[in-house]
Amino acid sequence: MRCVARLLLVEDDLTIRTPLLRALREYGHAVAAASTALGGLRDALDDRPDLVVLDLGLPDLDGGELLRMLRAVSAVPVVVATARDDEVEIVRLLDAGADDYLVKPFTAAQLDARVRAVLRRSATGGATETALVVGGLRIDRRARQVTLDGVPVELTPREFDLLHHLAGRPGQVVTKRELLTEVWRIPYGGADKTVDVHLSWLRRKLGESAQAPRYLHTVRGVGVRLDVPERNR
Description:
alpha/beta; Rossmann fold; Arc Repressor Mutant, subunit A; 2 domains; five-stranded parallel sheet; four-stranded antiparallel sheet; 21% strand; elongated; two-component regulatory system; transcription regulation; DNA-binding; transcription cis-regulatory region binding
């Protein structure tokens, strides 16, 4: 039997937690469990799992608050597994740093597939690069840090993922549909306005605007391109 990963399942409902634990272990994962948000936070920091599966309806704190607390201290991948299927809520949690989102009811096979996909993305990103450099921009994926001309730039988790995706394709026009699929993990549906708002925030933090772009160039009706400013070429 393969041991794919060390997982932490944060789920308060025993009728869900017990069969999921059994099934994920049968898939070869080493799985620990917590029934509260604070217990999950403690276990995540003490045991350093490869991935956290997070329910939102926890008895002591909302799972979204636990996600925020985790992201303040850890880059551990998080798959949110919950009954909440509201698109606004899904986007909010992905913006807050969740790596994927699975709506109940789901099968253990579906969860296992999502876990393996997230871990593949994490392993590929960490193994193949230390930093991306585009002009004066340096994006360090492992440390999740960005500097512009040597000065640190404070980004939210989703802003970082958006910038990193664009920086991996310098000079190429990336469509908003691709960004929703690859950065927000919303392959169907989703609003272009979500991308527009985050691009606006990102431009502000990079000291530019849509009217006076330096790195981020909008291609009307197509998407956005990240490129080296003329003076840096």
